[in-house]
Amino acid sequence: FPTTKPAAPGMGKVKRGGTAGETPPTLIVAGGGGAFLHPTHCFQDRIKVGEDDYSRVCAYPNAKVSRRLSWLNLWQFRWRNWRFDVLWAVTHFGICSSLFPLCGVYDDYLEFNPNHNLGYLLLWVFRRVGLLFAQIFVSGRISLLFTLIMTGIAYTFTDSSNLKWKTHLGWSLAHAFTHISSALICILFLECMAEFVVNEGLVVTQNVGGATNAQSYGTGLATSIYDEYTIHFSHTLEDFNIQMLNATNTTLFRDPPDLFPSCRFDERLYSMASETFSWVYHEAPFLKATLTVFDLLGIIGSTHVDMCDVLCSGGVECTYSNDFLRYQQLDRVTILKYLAAISLYFVIFAVPIAGNIFGTWLAVTLNVFNCQYDEGFSSLRMEHWKNFLRMHITANGDLEIFAIGLHRVPKKWRKDPSWEGGIESEDTSTKPSWMWKTPSKWIPWRERNKFAPQIIDYSKMERNSQD
User: Fold this and answer.
1) Which residues have a Cβ under 8 Å from the Cβ of 351 and sit 6 or more positions away?
2) pTM score, two decimals?
3) Is the CB of residue 56 less than 8 Å from the CB of residue 38?
4) Going by fewer Cβ within 10 Å, which terminus of the chain is more open, N or C?
5) Could you check whether the bond before residue 6 is cis, i.e. omega within 30 degrees of 0?
6) What are the Cα distances from residue 257, in Å, to 202, 209, 276?
7) Which range, 12-26, 197-211, 425-439, is most confident?
8) Kindly report the CA angle at 362 between 359 and 366, in degrees rounded to 5?
9) Residue 279 vs residue 272, higher pLDDT
């Protein structure tokens, strides 16, 4: 009987439909000792080997369990493959990079859905996503590049082994468009929130002429971190700084004639610390710059208003399209500051959505099209459902094949105190290890029934009478 290890690990046995008077050979595939589990439901039960037809009569795990395990990609893909978050962050932000900012998008939503109806909200999102998608091909540059890259990756990644070319093309384009749509939905949400915090007075902004936004006479929670500090907390550091400067000038630190050198060194060190603190506090904008880093809402809101004042000057419609010449009037510092600030919020929303989209795509592909079995199960990293073969030749020459399965594999081990290999005796030195009562050096840390090996299949090949 032939034994092979094909690209579909797992344990399977097939039998040939032989003719009368002919003993049909049994083919056994045992490749379930690898790093992770592979599915068994993605392959047909009827198998053709050369001119012979075979039917699969056993598989481990069975097709029902294999399908159930494949659905774990729905919620386990992202946390098991968190390194993909970098790919999702770069590609999805690149898709939207040429569309920032969407000036007036919140007013456009209020005009379309003033009563905040859920149905109209979904309709507005659907229409605006289509409009932004078309805008990528009309005027996008970096967005168009990343859109084509995403489409190409989705097409080449899709397994076409069991798919017709039309199905392959349609399924890969649907996958790519879902990722692109999720990125566009994220930009719609973030741009609406950027204008919402400005309109509701949560961000204090100024127009081009320097006048304060009339709608921003609220609490100013987002942009007043440094202002709140200067009003309520700056006097604390001022008093501390004055005390440090006065302490260095008191008689306590004047050099008496019998002052030890170590005391002189402590005085100089204290004086240097006081001068450094005074310089950082008064001369260098260290504190203000540090607080500004955490003022992301303020940066996004104020920069959004400044950019839209330039792009929409003269009453030009610029909600879903930007004039390239007007865009060139914006300085690079303003653009980079805006993109850097909003990218942090964008990643928080886009990355989990993208990871779940990809996991859902893998699960559906595995169960509907029976494809992507390598990627779909390697992403789960399952070390369970191991199997191997044990063969025994009986006294009359028959070959017995036992398929051993491990439903669960222990993750913690301990040394077996009754291991015969560690006992110096005449029996262990003369008998081979397979004849020992306890040949295994390691046993599970805890004895559980789920760790016990099971015989999952048995085959017997009788000795050829001619031999």
Assistant:
1) 85, 88, 89, 92
2) 0.74
3) no
4) C
5) no
6) 62, 64, 28
7) 425-439
8) 145
9) 272
Residues 6+ positions from 197 with CB-CB distance below 8 Å: 203, 222, 297, 301
**Percentage of the chain lying above the pLDDT 70 cut:** 73
Residue bearing the bigger pLDDT, 373 or 346: 346
DSSP letters spanning 107-130: HHHHHH-TT--HHHHHHHHHHHHH
Which alpha helices (DSSP H) does 140-224 contain, by range?
142-157, 165-199
Average pLDDT over residues 26-42: 80
Contacts for 7 with CB less than 8 Å, ≥ 6 apart: 374
Residue 154 has pLDDT above 60, yes or no: yes
Higher model confidence: residue 51 or residue 373?
A: 373
Distance, in Å, from the CA atom of 374 to the CA atom of 83, rounded to the nearest integer, reads: 18
Q: Which of 191, 192, 158 is nearest to 358 (CA)?
A: 158
- Residues 87, 80 contacting (CB under 8 angstroms): no
